[in-house]
Amino acid sequence: MDFITIVFLVYSVLAFYFLFLYILIYFQNRKKVFYTPPITKKYSLSIVVPCYNEEKTIEKVIKNLLKAKYDNLKKIILVDDCSTDNSYKIMKKYAKKYPNKIIAVQTPKNTGKASGAKNYGAKFVNTELIGFTDADSYPQRDAINYMIGFFDDKKIGAVTANVLVQNRDKFILKLQSLEYKVIKFTRKLLEFIDSIYVTPGPLAIYRKSAFDNVKGFDEKNLAEDIEITWHLQYEGYKIKMAVPSRVYSVAPSTIKDWVKQRNRWNIGGLQCVNKYKKVFGKKGTLGNFIVPLFISQWIIGLFGLFILGYKIIRTIILKYLSVSYSVQTQTTILNMKDINFTVSVLVFFGLVVFLLSSFYTIFILLNVKEKQYKKENFFTLIFYMIFYLLAYPIILLISFIKYLKGDIKW
User: Fold this and answer.
1) How far apart are CA 348 and CA 326, in angstroms?
2) Using an 8 Å Cβ cutoff, are 113 and 222 in contact?
3) What pTM was estimated for this model as a whole?
4) 3 state SS of 355
5) Structurally, how many domains does the chain consist of?
6) What is the SS3 assignment for 242?
7) Burial 47-59 (b: 16+ CB within 10 A, else e)
8) Can you give the pLDDT at residue 255?
9) What are phi and psi of 103, to 5 degrees?
10) 220 in any annotated domain
11) 157, 235 in Cβ contact below 8 A?
12) Is the separation of the CB atoms in 395 and 262 below 8 Å?
């Protein structure tokens, strides 16, 4: 058995492992996936909204928060990171209109990152819970209510919501919508083994004492929502997810913006791995599952890309040499005896992994019901499975090169 075959079989085993792990977790906890604890105590809550040049969306975000059903939402802190458009002007208008509910503040200077504006806004919070939502994300009216009950458990440091794509008028947005659904469902499954590794920016609520204990967001990290989750895990807090709590976020509508966003996520993940590499193999699920998971994903993604590139280049060279030799010697390029209809082990395992992944994705889509949106069609699903996911290792390589070069910017 050659080296390439061994590598491919290892990849297949890992794919089977994670697929069956998620399936097993689901069937053991299927009755709890959509469960949220009832509200027994109305904790005081403040929501911080960081903003930079979001004049097109910030007003709608403010209106959404004002309509929130949770009646102990004390303050909405709007933080402008020295925008160059009319964002701050819109914020001040609403702060003037709702002086007892809304505070509009501006950072002394542009921080250049969401974490800077978030930490600045947190200085104005003195409630039991502190929440964050992006300036282009829209929590549903009852989103907060589904999250509050989890905090009755004193070990809970943060609760995250179900993030879905708001805009779906382009093909790339439809692909991201599908991806977000798979991510959110998988994230909920990871909760059952205490392994949620991110509390996404569109909507997350933290226990204020826990937030202060980890000193807020790491402003050096490009994925501050990943880092703070790892930090909370490191300090012994647990993270929960409320599936019925929905927040719709504006996703990148161009390939350029999509690549830029994913580079930021990936580089932030690498920063987290570097920061917490010493806990590998210890510190509960953080060191025994989350950190190894991230490292293995990077190794598999990058190594797999090189193996695939090697196979393609090798095939092209061999075909070229074969054709050149046949032309020079005037022999037959293709003979019927050379055609082999036997399915190789590699093809078989590859097909099985693809089919299982497709069934897993379809199963998730059947469990996510959105009345206001049409279901993804068959073509979108196939394109997502074959091309969209296969493009991601290339993004990983770009991110890895940027990280090594020190090209770490928002």
Assistant:
1) 32
2) yes
3) 0.89
4) helix
5) 1
6) strand
7) bbbbbbebbebbb
8) 93
9) -120, 130
10) yes
11) yes
12) yes
User: The tokens of 330 are what?
Assistant: 């005037």
Instruction: Name the token pair of 99.
Output: 């002086």
- 119 exposure class (CB count in 10 Å sphere: 0-12, 13-18, 19+): buried
Give me the mean pLDDT over the 393-406 stretch.
Answer: 90
Position of tokens 């469960």? 35
144 token code pair: 């907060």
Q: Cβ of 135: how many Cβ atoms within 10 Å?
A: 29
- 307 lies in some domain: no
Give the residue, 75 or 393, on which the prediction is more confident: 75
Range of the domain at 256: 34-289
**Contact predicate 299/291, CB 8 Å:** no
Instruction: Supply the pLDDT for residue 344.
Output: 57
Residue type, 365: L
Q: What does the pLDDT look like over 204-239, one tens digit per residue? A: 999 999 999 999 999 999 999 999 999 999 999 999
For residue 317, is pLDDT > 90?
no
Distant-in-sequence, close-in-space partners of 145: CB < 8 Å, separation ≥ 6? 39, 69, 70, 245
The residue written with tokens 């969306």 in the block is 57
pLDDT digits (tens, 9 = 90+) for 227-277: 999 999 999 999 999 999 999 999 999 999 999 999 999 999 999 999 999
Distance between CA 369 and CA 341 in Å, rounded? 43
Residues 289, 281: Cα–Cα separation, whole Å: 8
Considering the domain boundaries, does residue 331 fall inside one? no
In CATH, what number is assigned to the domain containing residue 57?
3.90.550.10
Residue whose structure tokens are 């299927």: 30
Q: Are 235 and 187 in contact (CB under 8 A)?
A: no
Closest Cα to residue 108, out of 124, 96, 120, 123? Answer: 120
Structure tokens at 115: 């974490």
- Residue 259 resides in a domain: yes
Beta bridge partners of 300: none
Residue 270 φ then ψ, to 5°? -65, -40
Task: Tell me the pLDDT tens digit for each residue of 322-349.
Answer: 666 555 665 555 454 554 444 455 566 6
Under 8 Å between Cβ of 85 and 133: no
Per-residue tokens: 4:
């390439």
Residue 346, amino acid: L
